[in-house]
Write a structure and sequence with these properties.
Elements: H1 2-21, H2 25-38, H3 43-70
Length: 71
């Protein structure tokens, strides 16, 4: 039902957020990608994609910092 979809997509998104906050980016990406795949066009999809983008930006920043310290 539509109501159970709301709960499911929120639960999947919350799992992704919990993994992201605990530093487990691999599992976070898995859940954010599932939200985006299963619930396109929803606010939850937009939030999941935003979190994926911010994780990518952080990873790029970490890589840059590591490269800078090796010079």
């Amino acid at each position: 039902s539509a109501a159970s979809d709301v709960y499911k997509r929120q639960a999947l998104l919350n799992l992704g957020i919990a993994y992201m906050r605990s530093g487990d980016n691999e599992n976070a990406k898995t859940y954010f990608n599932r939200v985006a795949e299963l619930f396109p066009g929803t606010e939850n999809e937009a939030t999941a994609k935003s979190n994926l983008n911010s994780m990518s930006d952080t990873a790029a920043d970490d890589t840059k910092t590591a490269d800078d310290t090796q010079e």
